[in-house]
Design brief:
The complex is a heterodimer. Chain A is of the alpha+beta class. Chain A has helices at 25-31, 83-99, 114-121, 157-166, 201-205, 227-237, 250-253; strands at residues 7-12, 15-20, 55-58, 65-66, 77-79, 145-147, 171-174, 181-184, 211-213. Chain B is α/β, with parallel strands linked by helices. Chain B has four domains: 19-122, Glutaredoxin; 147-350, Rossmann fold; 360-443, Roll (Ubiquitin-like (UB roll)); 448-540, de novo design (two linked rop proteins). Chain B has a five-stranded mixed β-sheet, with helices on one face. Chain B has a five-stranded mixed β-sheet with strand order 11-10-14-12-13. Classes of the chains: A alpha+beta, B alpha/beta. Chains A and B meet through helix 2 of A and helix 18, helix 19 and helix 20 of B.
C-alpha cells in the first residue's frame, strides 16, 4: 500500500516544488529533474554525507549544507549552483584528483567514471595542488574482481552496499585521515575472503575504476549505479519484473565465466 | 544490599581523623608531578616520617594537582592551626629536609620554598579545582569530608528534576569543551525527550596539544565528575552514564574506576541512589587515541564499539544518540561545575565571571612563560593578568608575541589585544575561541607560519578521513604551509592557502575540519607580513 506522505513546499533555484516530508533536498531535486552533482550518495544505500560535492546553499544558513543529508523543511529556499558552490566543488574535485592516482588514459573506467564526469561538468581542467602520487598496492587476488586503491576515493559505497544490501560486510575502512583506505576481511587479501559472495554489487556501485572485473581493459569497465535502487524497490514491492540485471564481466560476455 | 552512606557521619569521622595529626604533609601525586619524580619523593616522605619517629603526629597524603606544575614535585606542609608552607622541586633530599624541618631539625633551602602570595595563587578562583591538591582522590571519605556528594543528596532529597534543570539554566553555565553551548538548554532538551532509556556521557577525551584540565579533574577529584554526571542524570531522567576517557590517561581511568566502585558500595550509585527511587549506573569507556572522538557523534560511535567517525547532525544526540537513544554529552569540566551550582545556588555561580560567560575557566598555561601549570580564573579576567601577573611574564627578557587559545581549532591573540576580557564572545571576536582551556604563550622568537604548520599537521593526522575537504584538504594545507615555511613557497601560494582554508572551513562535515583552518586564518590575519617575507625570500633565492 503506498504510504501517504505530507508534501512540503520548497524552492530550488527559483523553482517551487512539492517535496515530501522526510525527503532530502537531493531526493526532492532529482524527482523534479533538478541536477545536483554527488559522489558518495547512492540511492538505496544509507546516507554517508562525506564527499561534499552535493553541497547546496540554504537561505538563512551561512555554511553550505550537503543536499543528500539535509531534510527538506517547509518554505526552504535552496540554491544549487551559485558561483561559490561551483568553486567549492571544483576545489573538492581537485583535492580528490591530487589525493590518489587518477590517470584516465589508462583506466578501465575511462568514459564510465563518475569522478571523471563530475570533473568535466565542474569545468575542472587542471589541478592546482601538488599530486601526492601515493604508493598503493593493487589487490588482484580475487578470482573474479580487482581492487585498485589508486583509483579509490573512499566514498564507502562498496562498504555500504556489501553490508546493507548483500549482508556480507566484506569491506571496511581502515586507518584514519589521509591514510584511510578500504580493506577486505579486516585486512586480508580479497581472494582469501570467506564472506565474499561474489555478488558483484560493490563493483556495480563503485563510482570510479577502483573496482572492476578481472580482464577488463581500458574503458571496458561499466558500472550499474542504479542496480541498488532497483534491487531495493523490487524487494520492497515484491516486483521482480522486469528482471534485475547484474553488470556482466568481459569474460561472461565472451562466454567463459569462471 | 548495603545501607546508604551517611555523608555527614563519614565527613565528621574523616575530619576528626585528620585533626588527630598536628602535621599533615600533602604531596602532589598527579601526572605532571609524577613524571617529575613525585613517586620517589612521596615514599621518601613516608619512610622519613617513620625513621624520625613521627608516625603519630605527621600524616603524609598523596593528593592532586596544586597548579604550579613546571616546578614539581610539589609538597605542602600544614600545621594544625593554619600555618602552611609549600615546597617545589621536591626530590628525595628535599623530602628528607622537609621531614627534618617538621621534626625541628634543620631547614629546607629557600630555593625550594614557594611564596603562596604570588598572583599565580592569589588571583585564582577555584570551583572546579576546589579539592584538587587537598583531598586524597583515592579515598571516598576524603572527598566526602570536603563536600563530595552533598549536592547530589541535596538535589535528590530537596529538588525536582525540573528544579535542577532550572538552576543550571539560571546559572548561565556554558559548555567548557570549547563551543560554549548553554548547558541548561542542553539538559532541558534531554529532559524533554521521551524514551525508556536515556544516557548521559562525560566527555573526557581531552586532546588539544598542551591541555590537561580535564585530566587533572578526573585524576584529582574523580568524585566531582561522577557527582556532576549523577546530578545530570537525575535532572534529565537518564539512568545510565558513561565517562569516556582517552587511553593516554591511565591514571584518570584507574582513579575513576576506583571512585565508581567506592561510590557504588556506598549507594551513591547503582539502584536506589541514597535510598531514593533514582537509579544510576556509570561505566568508564576508554578511547583508543583518536582526537576526533572528542566530537560528540564520533564519541558515541566509539562507545558503541564502532569506528570513531562523526556523523551529520541533525539528528542531535539529545534526539538520537547512544544506541539510538536520547543522549547528552557534557565535557568533564562542565560537569565538575554542577555540584557547586547545586550546593551554592545559581546566583552565587552567575556572580562569578561576566554577564554572558559566567563562572570560572581552568586553563593549562604553557609555552614561553615563567610560571606554567594549571590555573582556574574567573571569566572576564584579562589576558594580560593571566600572562603577566599569574604567568609571571615571558622569561629571559624576551617580548610577548601572541597567546594561542583553543588549540588546533583556535587562533592567536597578539599583543595589542592583551587587555581583552577572556570570555566566549571576546575571544571569538578576535578570531580565536575559548576552547577547552589550552593557553600557549609565544615570545618574539616564534615563527607564526610555523605555529600554523604545527597545528595543521595535528589536524591532518587526526582527521578521521571520512569527508574529502578535511581528509584531503588538511593534507594540501599542510603541504602549502610546509613549502612556505621551508622557504620554497611559490607566488600565488597565499591566495591558494586562503581559498583552501575557506573550502575546508565551509564544507567539512564536523567541527574538526570546519575549525582546522582557524590557526592559519588567524596567523594570516595578524602576522601576514611573516608569510609574505618568507615568500619574498623564496622568490629571491
Amino acid at each position: 500500500m503506498p504510504e501517504v506522505r505530507r508534501s512540503i513546499a520548497i524552492t530550488i533555484d527559483d523553482t517551487e516544488i512539492d517535496a515530501y516530508e522526510g525527503e532530502s533536498i537531493l531526493q526532492a531535486a532529482r524527482r523534479f529533474g533538478i541536477k545536483i552533482p554527488s559522489m558518495c550518495y547512492l540511492e538505496g544505500l544509507s546516507v554517508w554525507g562525506a564527499c561534499r560535492i552535493c553541497v547546496v546553499e540554504v537561505a538563512g544558513q551561512h555554511q553550505p549544507r550537503p543536499a543528500c543529508a539535509t531534510l527538506v523543511v517547509e518554505d526552504m529556499e535552496v540554491r544549487t549552483n551559485t558561483a561559490r558552490l561551483q568553486s567549492h566543488r571544483r576545489t573538492i574535485l581537485e583535492l580528490l584528483f591530487a589525493e590518489g592516482n587518477h590517470v584516465c588514459a589508462v583506466c578501465v573506467s575511462n568514459g564510465n567514471c563518475e569522478l571523471q564526469d563530475r570533473a568535466v561538468e565542474a569545468g575542472m581542467d587542471h589541478v592546482r595542488f601538488d599530486y601526492r602520487n601515493p604508493l598503493r598496492p593493487v589487490d588482484a587476488t580475487h578470482p573474479k574482481y580487482v581492487f585498485d586503491p589508486n583509483r579509490c576515493i573512499v566514498c564507502t559505497r562498496c562498504v555500504r552496499v556489501c553490508d546493507e544490501i548483500e549482508g556480507a560486510h566484506v569491506w571496511d575502512v581502515a586507518s584514519r585521515g589521509h591514510q584511510a583506505h578500504l580493506v577486505t576481511e579486516l585486512g586480508q587479501p580479497w581472494g582469501r575472503s570467506s564472506s565474499c559472495t561474489w555478488c558483484g554489487k560493490c563493483v556495480a556501485s563503485c563510482p570510479t575504476g577502483a573496482l572492476f572485473y578481472q580482464g577488463s581493459a581500458v574503458g571496458e569497465s561499466v558500472h550499474a549505479p542504479d542496480l541498488v535502487a532497483r534491487l531495493v524497490a523490487a524487494r520492497r514491492d515484491h516486483e521482480w519484473f522486469p528482471p534485475v540485471e547484474s553488470p556482466t564481466s568481459p569474460n561472461e560476455q565472451n562466454g567463459d565465466d569462471r | 544490599m548495603a545501607t546508604p552512606i551517611d555523608l555527614h557521619e563519614v565527613a565528621e569521622r574523616e575530619l576528626e581523623d585528620q585533626a588527630r595529626y598536628p602535621w599533615r604533609i600533602k604531596a602532589c601525586g598527579s601526572t605532571a608531578c609524577q613524571s617529575a619524580g613525585a613517586g620517589a619523593s612521596i615514599s621518601t616522605l613516608e619512610s622519613e616520617v617513620v625513621a624520625v619517629g613521627l608516625s603519630d603526629s605527621v600524616r603524609v597524603m598523596s593528593t592532586g594537582c596544586m597548579g604550579l606544575c613546571s616546578r614539581g614535585p610539589l609538597v605542602r606542609v600544614l600545621r594544625r592551626g593554619g600555618e602552611e608552607t609549600m615546597y617545589q622541586s621536591v626530590d628525595r633530599d628535599v623530602a628528607v629536609d622537609i621531614v627534618g624541618a617538621v621534626a625541628g631539625r634543620g631547614e629546607v633551602a629557600d630555593a625550594n620554598r614557594i611564596d603562596r602570595h604570588i598572583p599565580f595563587f592569589t588571583r585564582q578562583h577555584r570551583v572546579v579545582l576546589a579539592n584538587a591538591g587537598i583531598i586524597d582522590p583515592d579515598r571516598l571519605a576524603s572527598a566526602v569530608a570536603h563536600g563530595a556528594y552533598s549536592a547530589l543528596e541535596k538535589a535528590i532529597t530537596t529538588m525536582t528534576p525540573d528544579q535542577v534543570v532550572e538552576a543550571i539554566k539560571a546559572s548561565g553555565l556554558r559548555g567548557r569543551g570549547g563551543a560554549g553551548y548553554p548547558v541548561g538548554a542542553k539538559w532541558s532538551l534531554l529532559a524533554g525527550a521521551s524514551s525508556d532509556q536515556k544516557y548521559v556521557i562525560a566527555n573526557g577525551d581531552e586532546g588539544d596539544p598542551g591541555a590537561y584540565m580535564d585530566r587533572t579533574v578526573m585524576e584529582d577529584d574523580p568524585h566531582r565528575v561522577i557527582e556532576g554526571l549523577a546530578i545530570a542524570a537525575y535532572a534529565t531522567g537518564a539512568t545510565r552514564g558513561y565517562i569516556y576517557v582517552r587511553a593516554e590517561y591511565p591514571k584518570a581511568v584507574e582513579r575513576l574506576d576506583r571512585a565508581i566502585r567506592a561510590a557504588r558500595r556506598s549507594r551513591l550509585l547503582g539502584r536506589k541512589v541514597l535510598g531514593s527511587d533514582f537509579d544510576f549506573e556509570v561505566q568508564v569507556r576508554i578511547g583508543a587515541g583518536a582526537f576526533v572522538c572528542g566530537e560528540e557523534t564520533a564519541l558515541i560511535a566509539s562507545i558503541e564499539g564502532r569506528r570513531g567517525n562523526p556523523r551529520l547532525r541533525p539528528p542531535y544526540p539529545t534526539e538520537s544518540g547512544l544506541f539510538g537513544m536520547p543522549s547528552m554529552i557534557n565535557n568533564v569540566e562542565t560537569l565538575a561545575n554542577i555540584p557547586a551550582i547545586v550546593s551554592k545556588g545559581a546566583n552565587w555561580f552567575s556572580s562569578i565571571g561576566t554577564d554572558r560567560s559566567t563562572g570560572t575557566k581552568v586553563f593549562a598555561l604553557a609555552g614561553d612563560l615563567t610560571n606554567t601549570g594549571l590555573i582556574e580564573v574567573p571569566m572576564g579576567i584579562s589576558l594580560r593578568e593571566i600572562v603577566e601577573d599569574m604567568g609571571g611574564g615571558v622569561p629571559d627578557g624576551k617580548v610577548f608575541k601572541a597567546a594561542q587559545t583553543g588549540g588546533p581549532s583556535g587562533g592567536c591573540i597578539p599583543t595589542q589585544f592583551m587587555d581583552t576580557s577572556v570570555d566566549y564572545e571576546s575571544l571569538r571576536e578576535l578570531g580565536s575561541i575559548m576552547g577547552s582551556g589550552g593557553l600557549i604563550v609565544m615570545d618574539e622568537d616564534t615563527s607564526m607560519p610555523e605555529v600554523a604548520r604545527f597545528f595543521m599537521e595535528f589536524c591532518m593526522d587526526e582527521s578521521c578521513g571520512k569527508c574529502v575537504p578535511c581528509r584531503a584538504g588538511t593534507v594540501q594545507l599542510h603541504g602549502l604551509l610546509d613549502r612556505i615555511c621551508s622557504g620554497e613557497g611559490r607566488p600565488g601560494d597565499l591566495g591558494l592557502l586562503e581559498e583552501l582554508c575557506t573550502v575546508v572551513r565551509e564544507t567539512s562535515l564536523c567541527g574538526l575540519g570546519q575549525s582546522a583552518p582557524n590557526p592559519v586564518v588567524s596567523t594570516l590575519h595578524y602576522f601576514r607580513d611573516e608569510y609574505e617575507s618568507l615568500l619574498q625570500e623564496a622568490a629571491h633565492a
